[in-house]
């Protein structure tokens, strides 16, 4: 009797269509849950921020003319305003945020933001503007500040408390496009991390210390302005992130009405 050879089908290495669909659905459910959690957090943060803003406003009103009080209250009011702007950005994560562009100088915005952050960042935080560049752009000042703060806070998290150095620069490219730049001497990034830098919810920080939305927001806002991001980083050698903006007229076409911060 001749032996019968049984041929068994080889298992496919490709996942079944149903398996891929299940994975996609789980990913969507995860995003929905994260969105709901973010919405709840934003609501609670907004309530707390309103209390801070209200009481800081009362302090300012009750101590009019007191320079010592104003020196502490003004940064508090400014920071509370930035928190409100960040909450609005989170609410609008699923749709383009409403912007209020105006003529401004990156030097002025960076200097103000640098002064604010010096109070809360225990690192060497340096500001190195190019004397020949004011950085005239047409942009929403709140969005520019938010982008710079995101970059500086990321640099803070990547640098050691002792010996950590963060440099904020304003300059222009060879094509005369103004830029904001943040450079640090921190841990740097591997090519694998750099490739996922602008992926939603991706973070290398410990649980509870990062949302994975900061650079996503920066990338989105800058693209909306017609700009671009340039990233240079090596593991163990630090990181430099440059925000390049479209140029604007060297003088405010509104005659100073759109200058930020406004002329005294």
TrEMBL record:
Catalytic activity entry: ATP + protein L-histidine = ADP + protein N-phospho-L-histidine
Alphabetized Pfam families for the sequence: HATPase_c
Keyword Transferase among record annotations: yes
PANTHER family to which the protein is assigned, alphabetical: SENSOR HISTIDINE KINASE (PTHR43065), TWO-COMPONENT SENSOR PPRA (PTHR43065:SF42)
Residues annotated as domain Histidine kinase: 40-249
Keywords: Phosphoprotein, Transferase
Organism: Lacunisphaera limnophila
MF annotations from Gene Ontology: phosphorelay sensor kinase activity
The protein's name in its UniProt record: histidine kinase
Enzyme Commission number, as recorded: 2.7.13.3
SMART domains, per database record: HATPase_c
Record-linked InterPro entries: HATPase_C_sf, HATPase_dom, His_kinase_dom, HisK_dim/P_dom, Sig_transdc_His_kin-like_C
Keyword Phosphoprotein: yes
């Amino acid at each position: 009797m001749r032996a019968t050879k049984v041929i068994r089908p080889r298992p496919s290495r490709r996942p079944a269509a149903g398996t891929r669909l299940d994975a996609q659905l789980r990913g969507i459910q995860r995003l929905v849950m994260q969105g709901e959690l973010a919405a709840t957090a934003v609501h609670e943060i907004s309530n707390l921020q309103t209390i801070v803003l209200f009481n800081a406003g009362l302090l300012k009103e009750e101590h009019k003319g007191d320079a010592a009080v104003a020196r502490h209250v003004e940064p508090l009011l400014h920071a509370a305003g930035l928190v409100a702007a960040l909450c609005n950005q989170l609410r609008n994560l699923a749709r383009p945020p409403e912007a209020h562009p105006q003529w401004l100088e990156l030097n002025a915005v960076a200097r103000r933001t640098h002064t604010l952050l010096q109070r809360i960042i225990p690192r060497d935080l340096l500001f190195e503007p190019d004397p020949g560049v004011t950085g005239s752009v047409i942009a929403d000042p709140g969005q520019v500040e938010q982008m710079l703060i995101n970059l500086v806070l990321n640099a803070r998290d990547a640098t050691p408390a002792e010996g950590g150095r963060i440099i904020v620069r304003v300059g222009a490219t060879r094509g005369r496009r103004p830029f904001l730049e943040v450079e640090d001497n921190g841990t740097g990034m591997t090519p694998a991390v750099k490739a996922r830098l602008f992926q939603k919810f991706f973070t290398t920080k410990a649980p509870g210390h990062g949302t994975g939305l900061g650079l996503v927001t920066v990338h989105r806002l800058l693209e909306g302005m017609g700009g671009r991001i340039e990233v240079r980083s090596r593991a163990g050698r630090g990181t430099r992130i440059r925000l390049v903006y479209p140029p604007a007229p060297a003088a405010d076409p509104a005659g100073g009405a759109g200058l930020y911060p406004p002329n005294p």
